[in-house]
Amino acid sequence: MFAVTILGNNSAIPTPDRHPTAQVITCNEQLMLVDCGEGTQMQLTRYKVRRGKIRYIFISHLHGDHYFGLIGLLNSMSLLGRIEPLTIFGPPELEEILQLQLRVAATVLRFELQFQALLPERTGLLLRDKDLEVSCFPVKHRIPCYGFSFSLQRRKRRVIPEQARAYEIPAAYFSKLQDGEDYLTKTGSVVKNDWVTLPPARGKRYVYCADSIYDEELIPYLQDADLVYHETTYLADLHERAAERYHSTSVQAATLALRANAKRLLIGHFSSKYTELQPFLDESRPVFANTDLALEGATYIL
Ligand SMILES: [Zn+2]
């Protein structure tokens, strides 16, 4: 299972039915949180996400709508008895902010909080955990900001049944072939694994672009991704305002997905000034047909 669940799809100011940015990535048994706007823990409860299973949190930048929910979530995790360590990746000042918030409240978390600072000179691979790889890349916004790329690697080789049968390899042995083992025949000769299998299928990749001005330098990071999340704070007519504020429009997000040959696009971070979201789709789809709105509570499977 590799999926993204949207907890918040709005920009700066929350509305009664749209929350600031937060997403949960499910990677097999593992959960990760990407950004943590105000209200995230209520959204986790509403959509029955098991917060105790969150192992990693990624904060793209320090505009409040991307992290104001963090201290509350950490506090609740501790009150609920969490003891498993938690790793947060974010801009270095975030660690100071959290430490101050904890210190003035004389709060000692029951679990170990590991902090990994994101720095412009240290982009690239952030972590490798089982079949999961996460890397980060810089995006252009008003303050330092990072996008994240999540990829689920496939390790199993693909058996070619006709080939395997030609060497009289029993089907019961196929799982070992998938793990890369050779086969020893009854007569003692070796059937090399790569005679009867193909390399593992390509892994799936989800790319989260955070808050960003329209920037074609992002294309290499999005290239051929299975799913891309790109912000669309504004509709196309406000492209000048979008550029001034280092945000993007519906048409710009779709254009980037198209140029990067992405398979699918999710759009979000809608300005509170819009009550209807349909116009975002109406503007994006003519440019990039496979676009969906990031809807709160919805899970998008890769
Ligand atoms: Zn921002």
Describe it for me?
- The active site is at 65 (proton acceptor).
- Its cofactor is Zn(2+).
- Zn(2+) 1 binds at residues 61, 63, 141, 211.
- Its EC number is 3.1.26.11.
- Pfam families: Anti-Pycsar_Apyc1.
- By secondary structure, the protein is α/β, with parallel strands linked by helices.
- The strands form four sheets. It has a seven-stranded mixed sheet. The chain has a seven-stranded mixed sheet with strand order 7-8-9-14-15-16-17, covered by helices on one side. Strands 10-13 form a two-stranded antiparallel sheet.
- The protein contains ten helices and 18 strands.
- The protein folds into two domains: 2-154 and 202-301, Metallo-beta-lactamase, Chain A; 158-198, no CATH class.
- Helices cover 24% and strands 28% of the residues.
- Zinc ion is lined by residues 61, 63, 141, 211.
